[in-house]
Design goal:
The chain is mostly helical and 240 residues long. 75% of the residues lie in helices and 0% in strands. Helix 2 runs antiparallel to helix 11 and helix 8 runs antiparallel to helix 11. It is globular and about 55 Å long.
């Protein structure tokens, strides 16, 4: 039930793009040709998943690099992950410079919706509470994801997307939990305590993944982060 709206939206978008691709009516004014082929979105999807898989397999290397510059593993992993996540925010600009702005964004959204739906369905089997949190956070923006001609609307969507970034979402959840336990702390100390707890939570999830084969970190880096990046790519897509 929690993935019903996402899957229905994906099917509806697929139907609309299929109908648009088959239209061949003569018009007085020629329109820009839009590529509805699967190869149009293939480079974007592959590049996003390869980069996220690289992040998922890099904690050990990041920890070793941090040790050489005098950082403890907890700091190096968090800072390295945050730096990586910030650096890949420029992907939409790179793809627009490689000519992908002429391709159809609808197929990218269809793939992202299907992947998000499968992720939520599988997560609900193991951890329904976590799946519900992701559903509440991601479904509204997933359904409204589309290129915006107005710069203000595009910036507004980008801010909302940044708030549901997996790393930001982790910090917000930890902050709420910290506030529930230490509500008497001033704001600056509460935020600092939340920052420290976020670093520990990220480190513990990686350790659990490596030692006990816990799936949370792997799913976050290999599934949830790629979906987020696809929606980021769609919302910052050049208006056609």
């Amino acid at each position: 039930m929690i993935t019903g709206g996402i899957l229905v939206k994906a099917l509806a978008l697929w139907y609309s793009t299929s109908c648009a691709a088959k239209e061949d009516e003569p018009e007085e004014k020629p329109k820009k040709k839009v590529d509805y082929g699967l190869l149009g979105c293939f480079p974007v999807i592959v590049a996003v998943h390869v980069l996220c898989a690289l992040l998922g397999s890099s904690p050990e290397a990041i920890s070793q690099i941090g040790t050489r510059v005098g950082l403890i593993p907890e700091d190096s992993i968090f800072l390295g992950t945050a730096a990586f996540c910030m650096s890949i925010l420029v992907l939409p600009r790179y793809f627009s410079q490689t000519g992908l702005k002429k391709q159809s964004w609808e197929l990218v959204k269809i793939f992202a919706l299907l992947e998000l739906g499968v992720l939520l369905f599988a997560s609900a089997v193991y951890n329904f509470s976590l799946a519900l949190i992701i559903t509440v956070a991601y479904t509204p923006l997933a359904l409204m994801a589309s290129p915006s001609p107005r710069r203000s609307k595009k910036i507004f969507k980008a801010i909302l997307l940044l708030l549901i970034h997996p790393l930001v979402l982790l910090f917000l959840c930890v902050t709420l939990d910290t506030y529930a336990s230490f509500s008497d702390l001033p704001v600056n100390k509460l935020l600092w305590k939340s920052y420290l707890a976020t670093k520990r939570a990220l480190t513990y999830s990686i350790v659990d993944s490596m030692i006990y084969s816990n799936w949370v970190f792997d799913v976050a880096t290999h599934c949830l982060l790629p979906v987020w990046l696809l929606f980021w790519q769609i919302n910052l897509y050049p208006d056609q």
